[in-house]
Design brief:
Layout lengths: L1 H11 L12 E2 L4 E2 L2 H8 L7 E2 H9 L4 H11 L1 E2 L4 H9 L4 H10 L6 E12 L8 E8 L4 E9 H7 L3 E6 L7 E13 L4 E10 L12 H4 L3 E7 L7 E10 L7 E11 L2
Parallel strand pairs: 3-4, 5-12
Antiparallel strand pairs: 1-2, 5-9, 6-7, 6-10, 8-9, 10-11, 12-13
């Protein structure tokens, strides 16, 4: 409150006749009696955030410094404010003040993606021999695993945790039971680049990586390539899997169908 009191006391000091009345700005609540100042502080835009390409074109076109800063403040900037970006903007003609505004109003970089897995296990009768599901998120550019997920489908479905059961009665002789499992988790990843989502269905328990598998099992790994952006409005991926049990070899399941979709904007 001392700051506000000091501002008020300064504003009440005598000032030369004819001089404009100073506007008093409350630094604690960002309120002001000046309508123009209040409107500027609270002004936002419903337009999409500025991309780096758009901002670069505006700077190269000679848009004024104050206008550039205001556009960034009201719309935000969908870009990573790293050194390469700042140098690129400087070459396009942006001032140092505009670069500082870009650092202040850029979206925070992605630090995770939210992965939802929808798994259907189709079997003629039961899932007593259901396999283990392994899912690895591998950063191809960095050469390391960002996450490794595994699930004992037999134990999970025996307990009935989050499992939806649907029975196909279209063929009374060959009816199937489809058990669906849905789970969602955040995969931490702070580095943009090429990600691979690798999926393996195996009878082997206790795997901690999908590297170093024998050739037969390695050939069964499904791999999905993902371009992971440094910054985005959204960061969701949905993985759909369908396992089907062999009608003769009751302990054998294969990955019959799989697809991955991601949303970044």
């Amino acid at each position: 409150m001392r700051i506000r009191a000091l501002l008020l006391s300064i504003a009440l000091l005598p000032h030369p006749a004819g001089a404009a009345e100073p506007s008093v700005l409350d630094l604690l609540t960002f309120q002001t009696g000046d309508a123009d100042t209040w409107e500027r502080l609270h002004r936002t835009s419903d337009s999409l955030p500025l991309s780096l390409d758009e901002l670069e074109r505006l700077a190269a076109a000679g848009i004024g410094d104050a206008t550039l800063r205001e556009l960034m403040r009201t719309r935000r900037v969908l870009a990573t404010a790293d050194a390469d970006t700042l140098v690129r903007m400087k070459k396009a003609g942006a001032s140092d003040d505009a670069l500082a505004a870009l650092s202040a109003y850029a979206f925070p970089p992605n630090d995770h993606l939210t992965l939802r897995v929808d798994l259907d296990v189709a079997s003629p009768d039961s899932v007593r021999e259901a396999p283990f599901l392994y899912l690895e998120v591998w950063h191809a550019d960095l050469g390391r695993a960002e996450a490794f997920l595994h699930a004992d489908l037999r134990g999970l479905q025996r307990r009935g945790l989050g499992v939806d059961v649907v029975r196909d009665r279209s063929d009374p002789l060959l009816h199937e039971t489809v058990r669906s499992v849905h789970f969602t988790g955040d995969v931490p990843s702070r580095h943009a680049g090429k990600l691979q989502v690798r999926v393996l269905v195996s009878k082997r328990a206790g795997l901690r990586t999908l590297a170093g598998l024998d050739p037969v099992e390695a050939a069964r790994v499904r791999t999905f390539d993902v371009d992971y952006p440094g910054v985005s409005l959204d960061h969701r991926c949905a993985l759909g899997l369908t396992l089907r049990r062999d009608r003769v070899l009751k302990d054998t399941y294969t990955l019959a169908d799989s697809h991955l979709q991601c949303w970044w904007d």
